[in-house]
Design a protein that fits this description.
Elements (H helix, E strand, L loop, with lengths): L1 E6 L4 E6 L16 H4 E5 L9 E5 H4 L2 E5 L2 H12 L7 H15 L24 E6 L2 H14 L5 E7 L5 E9 L5 E7 H10 L4 E6 L3 H6 L2 H11 L6 H8 L13 H14 L1 H16 L18
Antiparallel strand pairs: 1-2, 1-5, 3-4, 6-7, 6-10, 7-8, 8-9
Length: 305
């Protein structure tokens, strides 16, 4: 049984076919709107203010993908991935099983108490925090991130002490009161309190610097850098390319670059703010453009130009 996916920048649909010796028809009964058939967007290149980019189903057709694992294999793959995002014990078990199956690693269950009592006097500037969430939306997201990049931590932070002995956590991705994700400096007690209340069950490892490295750690330079970065936006313009650094080798089957492009195009329309964070900034940075829409990055073959 062959499974096919049909995609435009506005929708993704699928169908399956049992026999190869027959003619098969897939009918699109209605377009989302007129723009799906003839979609135009005009954006500005710094070097050419008159550049126009065009996506037209009439002109470029519909992207068609054959899922190599067939109907059963694709369903099994979905069963493997979908539970990762469940913020339940079932989701946690799925995350741990995913790590074991796909990365050959496992989490050793600790005896209680599960949270350690970390004393400030035992922590020094430059010590490192490695975090791994194992359920919920961010738990699932981090598992896929680990799988693609080969990392074993989904988030990291650095500890710094000021001249008064106050311990701070320097990290990127902190959500402020406006809902923006920024580079932040958070007092240890506040940060640790939030970590204990986090229902995604984060696993947090404190990794102290080796004494020889600590002796060379430039605390004043670290503070100068942290203060200069405080409040700046989270580095979405780099994040997506920590995943994708080759033409075709970063996509676990059955994904490939063309299918990812189709999904990104549709996602851009459904959640434009999220899409702007996740890939528009990254593409603008690397292409030297100022586009606000994912559609304008795509070539007629749905690849990046």
């Amino acid at each position: 049984m062959d499974l096919y996916v049909f995609a435009t920048p506005y929708k993704i649909a699928w169908d399956y076919y049992m026999r190869s010796n027959e003619n098969h028809t897939f009918e699109i009964k209605a377009w989302e709107e007129a723009a799906e058939m003839e979609y135009h967007c005009r954006s500005v290149f710094p070097s050419n203010p008159n550049t126009q980019c065009v996506h037209q189903v009439k002109q470029h057709g519909i992207a068609i993908f054959l899922m190599p694992s067939g109907m059963l294999g694709t369903l099994l793959s979905l069963i493997d991935v979908v539970p990762l995002f469940s913020n339940t014990g079932w989701g946690q078990d799925a995350n741990l099983a995913f790590l074991q199956k796909h990365m050959g690693t496992s989490f050793q269950k600790r005896s209680e108490p599960w949270s350690a009592n970390i004393r400030r006097e035992d922590v020094h500037s430059g010590d490192f925090l490695a975090l791994s969430k194992i359920r919920g939306r961010w738990g699932g997201f981090q598992k896929l991130e680990k799988w693609v990049t080969g990392a074993f931590a989904g988030h990291t932070a650095v500890l710094l002490k000021d001249e008064n002995g106050t311990l701070w956590v320097a990290e990127s991705g902190y959500e402020n009161k406006k809902g923006d994700e920024i580079i932040s400096m958070t007092p240890w007690d506040e940060w640790w309190g939030m970590a204990l209340k986090d229902d995604s069950n984060p696993q947090i490892a404190l990794l102290p610097l080796h004494p020889d490295v600590r002796a060379r750690f430039n605390k004043s330079a670290a503070w100068d850098f942290a203060r200069s970065m405080y409040g700046k936006p989270y580095g979405y313009h780099n994040m997506i390319f920590s995943w994708i650094d080759t033409m075709s080798d970063n996509y676990p089957p059955p994904l490939d670059a063309n299918l990812v492009m189709a999904i990104m195009s549709m996602w851009t329309r459904l959640q434009p703010h999220y899409a702007s964070n996740m890939w528009n900034e990254a593409l603008n940075k690397r292409l030297g453009t100022e586009f606000s829409s994912m559609f304008c990055f795509s070539s007629p073959s749905w690849g990046l130009s």
